[in-house]
Amino acid sequence: MSSIHQFKVPSLNGGEIDFSAFAGKKIMVVNTASECGLTPQYEQLQELHEKFFEKVVIVGFPCNDFGGQEPGSESEIEKFCVFNYGVTFPLSGKVSVVGEKPHPVYKWLRNKSENGVESSEVEWNFQKYLLDEKGQYVKMLAPSVIPIDEQILDWLK
Fold first, then answer.
1. Cα angle vertex 143, ends 139, 145, to 5°?
2. What global pTM score does this model have?
3. Nearest one of 61, 93, 63, 95 to 75, comparing CA atoms
4. Which positions are annotated as active-site residues?
């Protein structure tokens, strides 16, 4: 079975996010947006990042797929996240997570034939995908599940 460790993605600040560098840590992948009612989840994502950085890597994927809620440029998104929420966890370049051409990471996350566990649809901004230390898919959590929910805290133990 393949793992998320096979992917490299452009980062929001012009570098690269290499998922193989996260081997040995759990990974949470979250599609994000700056103008969503769920945008304050950035604060809890940053809190998780700071508290559990030795155990988990959070990777945000800004996207404009739902209600046009991420209209800004990559530099605008980065400034917003840093200024408003102090975000220091990795953010990818702006991507599409649904439609005919979803980003390859999201194609892998959404299809059982690729991730080996389950198929899912991305319902809205701030949907969470949890992966284990080997980069294997564990489960998907709905956007309404906050980052400091007991399900996530238990997963981190």
1. 75
2. 0.97
3. 93
4. 36
Domains of the chain by start residue, with CATH: 4-156 (3.40.30.10)
Burial of residue 100, with CB atoms counted within 10 A of its CB: 0-12 exposed, 13-18 middle, 19 or more buried: exposed
Separation between Cα atoms, residue 118 and residue 46, nearest integer Å: 27
- Long-range pairs, 44-47, Cβ under 8 A, ≥24: 44/146, 44/147, 44/148, 45/87, 45/89, 45/147, 46/85, 46/86, 46/87, 46/88, 46/89, 47/147, 47/148
105-153 pLDDT tens trace: 999 999 999 999 999 999 999 999 999 999 999 999 999 999 999 999 9
